[in-house]
Fold:
Amino acid sequence: MARSGRRGGRGGMSARAGNKIEQLPWSQTHLPYTPLKVVTEEQLEQIHRTSMRVLSEAGIRVMSETVMDLFERAGAIVDRDEMTIRIDESIVAQALETVPQSFDMVARNPEKRITMGGSAMNFGLVAGPPNTHDMINGRRPGNHEDYCNFIRLAHHFNAVNIIGNQVVAPMELPANTRHLDTYLANLTLSDLTFHCTAIGRGRALDGINMMAISRGISIEEMREVPGVVTVISVNSPRLLDEAMTDGLMAMAEHGQPVSITPFTLMGAMTPVTLPAAMAQQNAEALFGVVLTQLVNPGTPVLYGAFTSNVDMRSGAPAFGTPENTKANIIAGQLARRYRVPYRTSNANASNCVDLQAAYETMMSTWGATMGGANLIYHAAGWLEGGLTASMEKFILDVEIIQNMKEFMKPISFGEDELGLEAIKSVPTGGHFFGAAHTMERYETAFYRPLLSDWTNYESWEAAGAKDALTRATELWQQALREYEEPALDPGVAEALDAYVIRRREEIGAGEP
Amino acid sequence: MARSGRRGGRGGMSARAGNKIEQLPWSQTHLPYTPLKVVTEEQLEQIHRTSMRVLSEAGIRVMSETVMDLFERAGAIVDRDEMTIRIDESIVAQALETVPQSFDMVARNPEKRITMGGSAMNFGLVAGPPNTHDMINGRRPGNHEDYCNFIRLAHHFNAVNIIGNQVVAPMELPANTRHLDTYLANLTLSDLTFHCTAIGRGRALDGINMMAISRGISIEEMREVPGVVTVISVNSPRLLDEAMTDGLMAMAEHGQPVSITPFTLMGAMTPVTLPAAMAQQNAEALFGVVLTQLVNPGTPVLYGAFTSNVDMRSGAPAFGTPENTKANIIAGQLARRYRVPYRTSNANASNCVDLQAAYETMMSTWGATMGGANLIYHAAGWLEGGLTASMEKFILDVEIIQNMKEFMKPISFGEDELGLEAIKSVPTGGHFFGAAHTMERYETAFYRPLLSDWTNYESWEAAGAKDALTRATELWQQALREYEEPALDPGVAEALDAYVIRRREEIGAGEP
Structure:
């Protein structure tokens, strides 16, 4: 410790050869503070009222006869020619009555059970990029090996609570069956819950079935505590396509949670003003929430938000902006108004893992966490506006997540912590390094960072002057070396393999 | 705009040749949200009560007979042998009655008047590093040319509201008169208020006199609206040295504001527990606040905070940590309890301008801004734990400050902004790029970043694949080219020169 015996710091990994990566233990983080508010209660009601008029006057277009039937039976005004559904507030209110305020999810490891709702906070692996990047191998189209490595990293780092939709697309595998390969990787290389691809019923059902097999339970039993989740994106403005609604219905029928997430970039998919964007997002999200309850009352559902802005000079999407940060907080206010668990993201728009990637991610992360999000999707590895999954960004994000988790850790306030005697025990101008009060606590007193290097300049320079990006490159490689595959019952492994083989044959050249 | 005419984005400065740097206009930012709370009201009282016992039972050591006399007259228990002053809560309470809840400051440009107090928020240039660094010239000891360039940058960018104590030390100039050179640079190269070095009375008085000359008023008249501020650091634990108290008294006698800032790194200068650190910081800060009011009741004063932690493995200071972030917020709760304007910082511990510098600065910035700080000191340019002023970090910080200022910008909530008609005017699955509602607002709808590049990957690569650090290097050079020295009345310039020449002779080889 410190002055009684400096260890030469930790300037780079070389000084720690043989040391395993330190990280926070697995835990369910809770927001211990009052969530931030960006708009007043009256402004929130203005957004609500506007969104209700969007639903009753403009409506949502849905490319599905089944959905139109469901809404018609619920009392909606359905325009079959235009495939547009208009609902009034009473239909929304009735659906909200059956939405669970909170639900749990678990995969095959009961210790990694997570809660969606209340003050619980969970972070997800980035989902959906076609490309992957790291500083060793460069930028390349997604492939199965990279996919597996990301799942290993997500399993290794406790900061990641849930696997999102296809961290990178394994482009070399057939498009109609690659979901089977990714589910199998999720279930064998990790013990986390994951996102089912819900483009069509088949992909959703395969995820549900395989998760049930891995837990050794039936899909009926999995209604009790769901094991998979899906995200239904609204094609904003006001459009739900058929494949998405089919996936939504498959999940809801089986009691598995759905996040309804309008993709609402201000100036492109919504009006350019934030109140209007929030009103449109709210209308679209609540419409999806209603649909889940019409399919199966009591279906766990998340109020999803993805409102940011575009660069009005180029039309390119921007994330981690001040407007995105406000939207993350307002969406939390709305979700709490309706008592629906809340999902958002903490994206950035940088093309490489640089200062911009860090500060934009921090902006959106603060909006998401202090906005009261229960699920922060895309939280680890998102780069290039979501077009690339990055290994170094993953490490940066784990550090950011760990910092936020520690910021959320409640402070003990006993007499010992208030420390009057400790203060009095050290003379003026002295120091507390060797004090008994310090010695008893110093090993666990403060957060120990994953990526930050706190050595002084001279030690840092002597250790190679490695910047955080260089250290991140070392850390993901070290993590892959230290990764241990979670043990899986051989019978379960066989059953999963058999399922995949059978389904691959069934699907053939068709769609799942 | 966007799809009707892409301009190829702004991937790097080359694409903008001839374009001046865009930035936010000068403005007084206010926190429009409820400040964050990390501790409950009861916990806040526990910190308060503990700090009162520190003051009455342990006391503060002060190396000044004058200060001991002042406190003795106020009813304190003064131990002359130990030079220790013990005060009870009634003395603190009485002093707090005369502390202004808010005060204004201004230099020679009345449009750049700033408020310290209430919800007002101001950002300061980094203060005190012995070294400077940029990516063109590398790391070097501070010098007068670099000093002047930082003042030019601070003047150029509206994000910076106030100049801190010696942004870099001009090491080549004589130590006993270099404060005159730096004040002269502040007053000729910028029109901002600044920090007087208060190591001894002479340096403080020179700053007060020169600011008064530059404003064309007497130092008596400058009591109305102060023009300079100083920071008095407590040598924690519980020690105030004589030079600092002399400077404090000189400022207070002339009605110029003082920030009392204990330097409290947990585990080194305070106990390792956060409640104890806050109690000790609170005792030390309030002691200094009392001193200002004993010298001159009504002296403007800031409650200063600088509580972070050390790396318990190396003893090195750490900033932008979760503990630092919590401390920034708790200190705000304390300052508001006492109705004293609040100063803190948003430091980081990185040795270079990298991911770590960005995310640590963001952590501490969120704690400082949402903690309700009125003055965020060291906000632009801080690197290496305060040992280096960095040009690229300055640009990064201006971007961070601008992001926070935009996040603080209130949202308009009229019918037009709620945009029901705009939403209804675009068909499902369409887009809002060309909508009238968009066209009327798109130029000012969103924050336009200084440093962020939102072009897509291909455009970014084609423009040289410049990361944010490279762009920052270009931006500070461009800013120095675009910088315009603010006009100064020739009579004032002459008077300032004459003052400096006279004082240089007076000081000679002695101390000012």
User: Anything to note?
Assistant: Residues 1-17 of chain B have pLDDT under 50 and may be disordered. The longest strand of chain B covers residues 228-234.
